[in-house]
Specification:
- The structure is a single chain.
- This protein is mainly α.
- It is built from 5 helices and no strands.
- The radius of gyration is 16 Å and the shape is globular.
- It starts with a helix and ends with a helix.
């Protein structure tokens, strides 16, 4: 298999697929998300753990991508910048979605999820 195709399949495609899924589900009304996920009524308003998990996993894919490029010396920095910008785009798209809103707190949770992934990577 060609090296470029292999690189695309192993490193780029997971970022595209996972990022697309995040954007797709973020653009859905809250009722759709609630019907897909089993959410305990007690914790319905607390979405921090979901952000930590999803963006922690997403940052792992982004980290793997940057680690295997010419930017491998700046992997952590580029991953945090990518996650922050992606989160900003995600929240901006939610602004125009019924029953969804823009939240700086969600962006913060996303970036923290990325940092948690790095702690796992460092130790």
């Amino acid at each position: 298999m060609n090296k470029k195709i292999r690189f695309f399949i192993i490193y780029v495609l997971p970022v595209i697929i996972f990022g697309s899924l995040i954007l797709y589900f973020s653009s859905q009304p809250k009722e759709v998300i609630k019907s897909i996920l089993i959410i305990n009524q007690k914790y319905e308003k607390v979405d921090g753990p979901e952000h930590l998990f999803l963006y922690g996993l997403f940052s792992l894919f982004v980290y793997r991508l940057f680690k295997h490029t010419q930017f491998k010396n700046k992997t952590y920095t580029l991953t945090i910048i990518f996650i922050a910008l992606f989160s900003l785009i995600d929240e901006t798209l939610q602004f125009g979605t019924p029953t969804r809103d823009f939240s700086l707190i969600d962006i913060m949770w996303n970036i923290i999820g990325s940092f948690i992934n790095f702690l796992r990577e460092m130790f």
